[in-house]
Design goal:
The chain is α+β, with helices and mostly antiparallel strands. The chain contains nine helices and 13 strands. A hairpin with a 7-residue loop joins strand 1 and strand 2.
Amino acid sequence: MKTLEAKHIVKYLKENQEDMILFLKELVEAESPSTDANSQVKIISLLKMALEKLDFWVFHMPGKKTGGFIFSRPTKRLKNNPIQLLLGHCDTVWETNTILSMPVVQDELKITGPGVFDMKAGLIQMIYALQAIRDLKLKCPLTPVIIINSDEEIGSKESESAIVKISKIADRAFVLEPPLGITGKLKTARKGIGRFTIIVKGKPAHAGLNPDKGVSAIVELSYHIQHLFSLNDFEKGITVNVGMIEGGTSANVIAAESRAVVDVRVHNSKDADFISKEILSLKPKNKDVELIVDGYFGRPPMEKTQRNQKLWKM
């Protein structure tokens, strides 16, 4: 981008800052927890109207358990132009009515409120960047295509296939998630995230009367938890965390079933494959229990490559 163009864009955005803040507050007050599809109706409607005002065609695909996702592109475009995917989400981790105890607050340096940081401010940046391009009559060498999903905070299960499909035909992608730290560093690489579930089925018995007749699912699970902990390699950036465990029905009963949920983070695909194989190949220590292991890397690592480093330098 030429220096003069950049100055015009900055000037335009400063002139429109108050409108940006007002719209951000409106989006934040339209609370949108991931698991409440009804609450997401308003924010999806607000985003749809904002994009349509920019002369974008907008399609809303409803979800089964969530608000679904928005797919949008300019109504007027060169069909053979390369595609710039703009990706964001409108759901938050905050429950409905959080705004009552944590209202939007603005001071000289920042704005806070449920969902401001992650990532409704990013959606504002997306919309006003496109508005600046239109109003300043800037020429774009790529066609912007937008996906905004409403299930990102819970794994993007309903929107993942659409994101993957569009990503494969896009020449590049820009995710409007929050940057790193106060200085706003852009992320050109990030860890992949895997989620695995381990279920152990044993045999119940009374712990006092006939413990020898039981097979403890909790004892079996404890062996695997220790093994999973041994897979951590902080120097390589591999973290394996058994974050949730449950099992048993009473203190005086040998546990018939137990369950663990495991979060895994890695820097590269090689480590993701290694950890996946380690977890999915777990075998029972006790031949009398049933061990069920399921899971995968829903978010593969974004590794540093020559292409994304070149894009960052642009």
